[in-house]
Amino acid sequence: MAIARRKLATSFVAAIAARGIAFYLRLVARRSRFQFFDGDRQADPSALAACLHETMATGSAIFPFWNCDSLVLLTVFAGNPSLQTLSAEFIITADDSFGGSVTLSLVRQLGLRPYLIRRSDPAGRIRDLQSLVSAEPRLVIAVDSHGPYRTVGVATGRLIRRLNAAVTPIAASCTRHVPLFRRKDLNMLLPLPGGDIVFCKSGDAQPFAGKTPVQVCQDLHLNLSVLHAVTRAAVKA
Amino acid sequence: MAPSLPRMLIDPAALRTYLTALIASELDLPASAIKPNASLRRTYALDSVAAVNLLFQIENDLRLEIDAELLVTVDTVEQLCTALVALGGDCSS
C-alpha cells in the first residue's frame, strides 16, 4: 500500500515537473535560431527529416545520443514541425526511475512517443525488452543513461546486433545554456531562450554488420564523440 | 498429442553443452571460459539485453515458451539447465 502510494506520488511529481519543462522547452524553441547539419554539411530541416524517414523505412533503426544532449534534442524536436511529424515513426526509451518518469511524461507532453523499459523489476525489464525487440523498432536512445556518462554500454552493442539496426548517431548543442545538475560528469545542459541551437545527424547510417558488441560500442563511442565535437564547434562558429 | 520436444531436454549433458556454447557466443567468450556454477551476472556481466537474446534463441531452438521470470531467478548454466529440463518435463506431461 505504502509502495503504491509512493509510486503514485512519484508519478504525480514527475508529471508536474514534465509539464513545466515542456512549457519551458517550447518557449526556448520559439525563441531560438536553429541550424541543421547532415554530417558536416548544413542541411534544410525538411530534407533532414526526409533522410531520417528514409532510414526508418528500411527496418529497425537506432538514433543514439549522449544523455547530456537530451534537453537540447527535445527542444529541437519541439521547435521543428518537420522533425515533429516524424515522431509518429520512432519511440524514445526511458525507465521507471524518477528521471525516467519525468522523461516519459515530458516526451508525451511534447507530442513524441515514449516507451517504458522498467528498471525496478528485472523480469518486467526483460519482458519490455522482449516486446521491443520483437517489434522491429525505430529508437531514439540515450546510450549512456544512468552512467557512466559518455560511455556506450555493451548492452547497446548487443541490441544493435540483435536488431541488425541502421544506426545514425545524433547530437545537439546550444550557445546559451546552464548546467541542469551539479554533476560534472553528466553535464546536462538546459538551453536558454535567445540562442543558437545546432542539430546534427551522422552523415550515413553506421555499418556494424559482422562486428562484435564490444567493437560496435567502440565505433559508436567514436562516432558520437566526433558528432558532439562537430555540434560544439558549429555553435561556437 | 503433445509436441515432441528436442532430445536435449531429456539429456542434461547435451543441454549443458548447448547452453554453454550459446552463452559463450552471446557474450563473445570461448565456451571453455563459461563455468557451469559461476554467476552469469557477476562473473560474465550478463545484462538484460543478453538475457533477452538468450531467451529468443532458447525458445526457438528448444521450442519452449519461457517466462522472463525464469531468467531472473536462475544465475548459472547449471541452474538454467535444471530449470529447462523441468520446464520440458512440464510441457511433455
Write up what this structure looks like:
The complex is a heterodimer of chains A (237) and B (93). Chain A starts with a helix and ends with a helix. Chain A has 237 residues and is α/β, with parallel strands linked by helices. Chain A is globular and about 55 Å long. The mean pLDDT of chain A is 92. Chain A is 49% helix and 19% strand. Chain A contains 8 helices and 11 strands. By secondary structure, chain B is mostly helical. The longest helix of chain B has 16 residues. The radius of gyration of chain B is 13 Å and the shape is globular. Chain B starts with 11 loop residues before the first helix and ends with a helix. At the A-B interface, helix 6 and helix 7 of A face helix 2 and helix 3 of B.
By CATH, the architecture of chain B is named: Orthogonal Bundle
Strand content of chain B: under 5%
Using DSSP, what is the number of strands of chain A?
A: 11
Radius of gyration of chain A (CA) equals 17 Å
Helix content range of chain B: 55-70%
Question: How would you describe the shape of chain A?
Answer: globular
Give a quick summary of the entry.
Helix content of chain A is 49%, strand content 19%. Chain A has 237 residues and is an alpha/beta fold.
Topology of helices and strands:
The complex is a heterodimer of chains A (237) and B (93).
Chain A lengths: L1 H29 L2 E6 L2 E3 L1 H13 L3 E5 L4 H10 L1 H4 L6 E4 L3 H12 L4 E3 L5 H13 L3 E5 L11 H10 L2 E2 L2 E5 L2 E3 L9 E3 L4 E6 L11 H24 L1
Parallel strand pairs in A: 1-11, 3-6, 3-7, 4-5, 4-6
Antiparallel strand pairs in A: 1-2, 8-11, 9-10
Helix pairs in contact in A: 1-3, 1-5, 7-8
Chain B lengths: L11 H15 L21 H15 L5 H6 L3 H16 L1
